[in-house]
Design brief:
Blueprint lengths: L1 H24 L1 H10 L5 H21 L14 H25 L6 H11 L2 H12 L8 H27 L3 H46 L1
Length: 217
């Protein structure tokens, strides 16, 4: 019984991961079915996000020096990963927070899942492109750059399609809230900076007070 359930869950995970290929080629139908028909899973979404971050890090090591020069002494891998994961998290929260106030139908988890599925073109294209970079010359660099940019544009278009389908917005309203979500991200950054600034000042105050008490004793 347990083995049957595990096999069924694994097959559902594989099917939902494979469904990402349908989403990126049929974005309107795909992202609608992703949540409304429950064709997506958090496990597949997390896998796509992990592969995106993994490929981004691998590009530092395995992309030809012709296309990318890396100064390892100035790179913090955790910050490099956070440069993708943190903005994605802020966009998910910002978009969900705004659309909830204006009749958006998507829940927080659905927005996260759709965003992860929209990232699919990045690992799908950037990984073979990374390998390809080691077999081309400088004269063929233009092809590499064009395909690399296309993968990013494709992902950006999928983000727009995903949010429209998740929240059931028209094109104009969807674009408006996409731009508004970017401003929401700035607000979130400001709030976080203000919060950590207050925390650090509070800690510094208690440390100085403790030192003063120790000095007087």
């Amino acid at each position: 019984m347990i083995n049957a359930l595990n096999k069924e869950n694994f097959q559902k995970y594989i099917d939902s991961l494979r469904f990402a290929l349908y989403c990126i080629t049929h974005p309107l139908d795909g992202f609608w079915d992703l949540t409304h028909e429950k064709r997506g899973t958090y496990a597949a979404a997390n896998t796509i996000l992990f592969l995106t971050l993994l490929v981004r890090v691998m590009k530092l090591r395995y992309t030809s020096f012709i296309f990318m020069t890396v100064y390892w002494e100035g790179i913090n891998i955790f910050l490099y990963i956070a440069s993708v994961a943190f903005p994605l998290g802020m966009f998910v929260v910002g978009n969900w927070g705004l659309t909830t106030l204006f009749d958006g139908k998507g829940r927080l988890g659905q927005v996260y899942m759709a965003c992860c599925y929209a990232l699919t073109p990045y690992p799908l294209i950037q990984f073979p492109l990374m390998v390809f970079s080691n077999f081309v010359t400088v004269d063929e660099a233009e092809f590499y750059m064009v395909v690399s940019v296309l993968s990013l544009l494709w992902a950006a278009m999928l983000f727009i399609a995903a949010m429209g389908q998740i929240h059931e917005f028209g094109l104009g309203k969807n674009l408006l809230f996409m731009v508004a979500s970017l401003f929401a991200m700035l607000v979130i950054v400001f709030i976080l900076l203000l919060f950590f600034s207050m925390i650090s000042q509070g800690i510094a105050y208690f440390i100085s007070m403790g030192k003063e008490i120790m000095f007087r004793l």
